[in-house]
Design a protein that fits this description.
By secondary structure, the protein is an all-alpha fold. It contains 9 helices and no strands. Helix 3 packs antiparallel against helix 8 and helix 4 packs across helix 5 (70-94).
Length: 162
């Protein structure tokens, strides 16, 4: 049981997969966990990297973008550009709703390229307030988790024609 909990936790911490993959995997492969347990473990796992991303990712990427080793420099420059692009897109979409709500929606809607990793990186690059960022990210993760739980349980089968 410990290894299954750890697997869901680790999967939810992986960039691009995050909770969006951990919940369906945890439920679909029948790890012997209740659905609510999978959801809570995935939420916790998805939240663990957030403060580290906020405080350290930008510094690492800026440092790496100046290094001579081409693969590191290219990777760091790619991430900085992606973060800036996502951040500027976030600010543009924010409009009258505000950055907090835009960041929340960016994390909450489980589509490829969005999520806690990208949202937090964008917030870090844009130097958004840490406390507001954390609240928006946590709220978004909760909503994304509930959406993925519903999908994993097949509640949208009728909508999707399955």
């Amino acid at each position: 049981m410990f290894w299954k909990v750890l697997l869901v936790l680790i999967i939810s911490m992986i960039p691009l997969i995050e909770l969006r993959g951990a919940v369906p995997i945890g439920i679909g492969f029948d790890f012997g966990l209740e659905e609510w347990q999978v959801l809570i473990i995935a939420i916790i796992g998805n939240l663990i990297p957030v403060p580290f991303i906020y405080f350290f990712a930008r510094k690492f990427l800026e440092w790496g973008s100046k290094k001579k080793w081409k693969p590191l420099r290219q990777f760091c420059n790619f991430c900085l550009k992606k973060g800036e692009k996502a951040g500027n897109k976030l600010l543009k979409k924010a409009g009258s709703y505000g950055t907090f709500f835009a960041l929340f929606l960016f994390v909450a809607i489980p589509i490829p390229g969005t999520g806690a990793w990208t949202g937090t990186l964008a917030a870090s690059i844009l130097k958004l307030d840490f406390k507001k960022t954390m609240i928006a990210i946590m709220s978004g993760i909760l909503v994304a988790g509930l959406i993925m739980l519903a999908v994993a349980l097949g509640l949208f089968k009728g909508i999707l024609g399955g």
